[in-house]
């Protein structure tokens, strides 16, 4: 197994050597999809779309970011670990860098028994950060109680103001999330999904690199896809926001990498 990330990742993410903007980290959006653009099965059932080789590529990518972000839908559905266990231990100095797990969880529904917290407790994972909407302890006793339980299990809770007019309701604004993470020292962020998080990040001009693993399978209409904003102008021409910079086969999968256009 290779002992360093694939060359295209080193090249695509070399902007990480530069400081990120003041208002956000460098952002990489990445996920795996079928050829009919599904990221999960019927009813959201988790699908292992990536084969071994592209999964190893994803784990190398994880080592190259300060933080790794998923939405609460993914955290509850998949109970992910977000670590780098598919990589062989490095031969030389120290272990691989582990990204900080970050969960976007407006109402604090994450379970204190989840694998991310269990891994932190047993010393194999970093302390997860949970981003939620601000709590008014007097009127939200249940949420305050859940906060206490999650903190007891090891989580750091980050509260952000949620506008009553937020659209869709209950969504924390992406720029606010990114600013809070940047202020906490996160300089590079890998966003893994799920469907709603992908749509939200694609709707804002904040994604520097987009890396999609395409597995040669059809999931069918019952599968879960993701929405993207309209990239067509009134005359039907493509208003490209990204340019494709690299395509490479990893085992049976095709990985397509894009970078944001200025
Ligand atoms: N194939 C792949 O690479 C991946 C697939 N998945 C799949 O995605 C599915 C989960 O996706 P979703 O249910 O859409 O959940 P999600 O993981 O996208 O979380 C969405 C939830 O986060 C909260 N949220 C707060 N602020 C938000 C914002 N600004 N934008 C979006 N959400 C915000 C809301 O409660 C929202 O319902 C699962 O089936 C999982 O297996 C998840 C990650 C990667
Ligand atoms: N790269 C990739 N390929 C797939 O086929 C996937 N289903 C995912 N899912 C993402 O990875 C998380 C699971 O991570 P762990 O294996 O538990 O470390 C899952 O929650 C999705 O974010 N990714």
Automatic annotation (TrEMBL):
* GO MF entries: 5-amino-6-(5-phosphoribosylamino)uracil reductase activity
One GO process term, biological-process aspect: riboflavin biosynthetic process
Pfam families, A to Z: RibD_C
What UniProt keywords are attached to this protein's entry? NADP, Oxidoreductase, Riboflavin biosynthesis
The pathway this protein participates in, as annotated, is: Cofactor biosynthesis; riboflavin biosynthesis
Q: What is the enzyme's class at the highest EC level?
A: oxidoreductase
Every Bacterial bifunctional deaminase-reductase C-terminal domain range:
25-256
The lineage's top-level taxon is Eukaryota
Catalyses: 2,5-diamino-6-(1-D-ribitylamino)pyrimidin-4(3H)-one 5'-phosphate + NADP(+) = 2,5-diamino-6-(1-D-ribosylamino)pyrimidin-4(3H)-one 5'-phosphate + NADPH + H(+); 2,5-diamino-6-(1-D-ribitylamino)pyrimidin-4(3H)-one 5'-phosphate + NAD(+) = 2,5-diamino-6-(1-D-ribosylamino)pyrimidin-4(3H)-one 5'-phosphate + NADH + H(+)
- Enzyme Commission code(s) on record: 1.1.1.302
Membership in a protein family: Belongs to the HTP reductase family.
Q: What does this protein do?
A: Catalyzes an early step in riboflavin biosynthesis, the NADPH-dependent reduction of the ribose side chain of 2,5-diamino-6-ribosylamino-4(3H)-pyrimidinone 5'-phosphate, yielding 2,5-diamino-6-ribitylamino-4(3H)-pyrimidinone 5'-phosphate.
Q: What is the protein's given name?
A: 2,5-diamino-6-ribosylamino-4(3H)-pyrimidinone 5'-phosphate reductase
């Amino acid at each position: 197994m290779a002992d360093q990330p694939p060359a295209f990742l080193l090249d695509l993410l070399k902007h990480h050597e530069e400081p990120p903007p003041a208002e956000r980290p460098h952002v990489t959006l990445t996920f795996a999809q079928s050829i009919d653009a599904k990221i999960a099965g019927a009813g959201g059932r988790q699908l292992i779309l990536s084969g071994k080789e592209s999964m190893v590529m994803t784990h190398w990518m994880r080592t190259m970011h300060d933080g790794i972000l998923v939405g609460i839908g993914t955290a509850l559905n998949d109970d992910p670990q977000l670590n780098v266990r598919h990589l062989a231990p490095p031969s030389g100095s120290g272990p691989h860098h582990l990204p900080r797990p970050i969960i976007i969880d407006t109402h604090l529904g994450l379970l204190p028994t989840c694998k991310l917290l269990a891994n932190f407790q047993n010393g194999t994972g970093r302390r997860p950060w949970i981003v939620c909407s601000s709590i008014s302890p007097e009127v939200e006793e249940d949420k305050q109680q859940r906060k206490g339980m999650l903190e007891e299990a090891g989580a750091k809770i980050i509260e952000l103001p949620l506008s009553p007019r937020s659209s869709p309701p209950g969504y924390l604004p992406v720029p606010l999330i990114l600013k809070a993470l940047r202020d906490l020292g996160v300089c590079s962020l890998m966003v893994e999904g799920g469907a709603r998080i992908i749509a939200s990040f694609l709707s804002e001009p904040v994604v520097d690199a987009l890396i999609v693993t395409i597995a040669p399978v059809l999931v069918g209409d019952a599968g879960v896809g993701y929405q993207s904003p309209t990239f067509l102008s009134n005359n039907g021409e493509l208003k490209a926001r990204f340019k494709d910079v690299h395509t490479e086969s990893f085992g049976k999968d095709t990985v397509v990498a894009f970078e944001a256009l200025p």
